[in-house]
């Protein structure tokens, strides 16, 4: 039995379906991300789990109990909202202790748990400050402390790091993940940031138009996205349309704009398919030594890597190369382009 189960959950607003036929089983202690573009139904799904919205159809079970229509305060859930409004007239310690006071936890235990939690989020020395005297990252940690101090069995986080700049955000991702490991609380994170979902989650549920597009471990769904949407949402992919010219065993030859590409997989001879290869799987070699030649249109230095756009008979190719510390081929140069055969995949057939 899973800790949390969403079974055929749908949510309809008027005649628009915000969430459609959503199924998800979450195990105890797991960290799951709901990842998808704006408007795909992430917050709606989280609100139904929290009890702020009722599903139009379907059921939500927690620990095997039907909680579909249970009141929010009976679900034992800690929440960090996207706009994590702290109480401005309360100190950090009072903000964190508020939920315990509501639950009528005694004064001494309250003091103890607030201290422990502040230590966990590394805010001990800020206990007596007011929110307005904190940085964005520190406020974010107060919001997190407020959610976990009540020791919920389920932690729901809706874009909790969206207000932070890139650097602090990355640090907070690691901290949040460490805290989650330490506390062991089952966690569902809503984000539209694929890097964040990949960095933090045990599994990611990719959502598109209210539906689950893909569910799996980050590496698994990055390497085997299954569909075009997931593939493009998790990083980028060079896509080529072509026709299968030959099939032998589990390898097909695909004619894409006159270029014959060898691809692992099955598709009938004569069928039209789309194949794709990720930018970081492509290597640049000397002209004439690759699968095709291409001309470097742009080369951008990004610190850890080089980002290229090449012109080739396959169309524009995005390529990223790791910066190995030496200058690489520049704009205007003709290069060879190659990739290992396992790196190119079949995406769509028919
Ligand atoms: N109370 C409501 N009444 C009518 N439509 C709603 C309501 N709440 C959400 N919707 C619609 O449901 C869809 C899903 O909304 P939701 O807030 O779940 O998206 P989201 O994935 O969280 O997006 P974002 O990343 O922008 O926060 C949207 O099309 C939205 O307009
Ligand atoms: Mg939202």
By CATH, the superfamily of the largest domain comes out as: P-loop containing nucleotide triphosphate hydrolases
CATH topology of the largest domain: Rossmann fold
Secondary-structure class: alpha+beta
The oligomeric status of these chains comes to: single chain
Which percent range fits the helix content? 10-25%
What's a quick, concise take on this entry?
This protein is of the alpha+beta class and 350 residues long. Helix content is 24%, strand content 37%.
Walk me through what this model shows.
- The protein has eight helices and 20 strands.
- It is α+β, with helices and mostly antiparallel strands.
- The chain folds into two domains: 4-233, P-loop containing nucleotide triphosphate hydrolases (Rossmann fold); 238-349, OB fold (Dihydrolipoamide Acetyltransferase, E2P) (Beta Barrel).
- The longest helix is centred in the middle third of the chain and has 18 residues, at 166-183.
- Bound molecules: adenosine-5'-triphosphate and magnesium ion.
Overview features:
Rossmann fold; single chain; 8 helices; binds magnesium ion; globular; binds adenosine-5'-triphosphate; 37% strand; 2 domains; OB fold (Dihydrolipoamide Acetyltransferase, E2P); 350 residues; alpha+beta; six-stranded mixed sheet
Topology:
Layout: E1 4-13, E2 16-26, E3 31-35, H1 42-50, E4 57-62, E5 65-66, E6 77-80, H2 92-102, H3 107-120, H4 136-148, E7 154-158, H5 166-183, E8 186-191, H6 194-200, E9 203-208, E10 211-216, H7 218-223, H8 228-233, E11 238-248, E12 251-256, E13 259-264, E14 272-277, E15 283-285, E16 292-301, E17 305-312, E18 315-322, E19 334-338, E20 344-349
Parallel strand pairs: 3-8, 3-9, 6-7, 7-8
Antiparallel strand pairs: 1-2, 1-4, 4-5, 9-10, 11-12, 11-14, 12-13, 14-20, 15-19, 16-17, 16-19, 17-18
The structure holds adenosine-5'-triphosphate and magnesium ion (MG).
Magnesium ion (MG) binds at residues 42-43.
């Amino acid at each position: 039995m899973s800790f949390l189960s969403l079974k055929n959950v749908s949510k309809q607003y008027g005649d628009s379906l915000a969430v459609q036929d959503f199924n998800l089983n979450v195990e105890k202690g797991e960290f799951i991300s709901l990842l998808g573009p704006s408007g795909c139904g992430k917050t709606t799904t989280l609100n139904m789990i929290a009890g702020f919205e009722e599903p139009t159809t379907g059921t939500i079970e927690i620990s095997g109990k039907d909680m579909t229509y249970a009141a929010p305060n009976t679900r034992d859930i800690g929440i960090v909202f996207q706009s994590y409004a702290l109480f401005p007239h309360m100190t950090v310690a009072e903000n964190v202790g508020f939920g315990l006071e509501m639950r009528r936890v005694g004064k001494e235990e309250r003091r103890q748990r607030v201290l422990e939690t502040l230590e966990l989020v590394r805010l001990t020395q800020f206990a007596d400050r007011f929110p307005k005297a904190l940085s964005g990252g520190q406020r974010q940690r107060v919001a997190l402390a407020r959610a976990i101090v009540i020791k919920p069995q389920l932690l729901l986080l809706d874009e909790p790091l969206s207000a932070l700049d890139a650097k602090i955000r990355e640090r907070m991702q690691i901290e949040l993940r460490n805290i989650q490991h330490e506390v062991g609380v089952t966690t569902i994170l809503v984000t539209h940031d694929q890097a964040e979902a990949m960095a933090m989650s045990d599994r990611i549920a990719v959502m598109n138009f209210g539906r689950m597009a893909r569910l799996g471990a980050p590496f698994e769904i990055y390497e085997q996205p299954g569909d075009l949407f997931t593939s493009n949402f998790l990083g980028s992919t060079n896509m080529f349309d072509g026709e299968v010219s030959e099939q032998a065993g589990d390898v097909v030859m695909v004619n894409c704009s006159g270029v014959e590409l060898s691809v692992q997989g099955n598709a009938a001879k004569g069928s039209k398919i789309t194949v794709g290869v990720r930018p970081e799987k492509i290597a640049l070699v000397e002209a004439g030594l690759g699968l095709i030649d291409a001309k470097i249109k742009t080369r951008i230095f990004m610190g850890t890597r080089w980002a290229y756009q090449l012109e080739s008979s396959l169309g524009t190719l995005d390529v990223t190369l790791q910066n190995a510390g030496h200058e690489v081929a520049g704009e205007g140069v003709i290069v060879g382009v190659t990739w290992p055969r396992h790196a190119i995949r079949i995406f769509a057939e028919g």
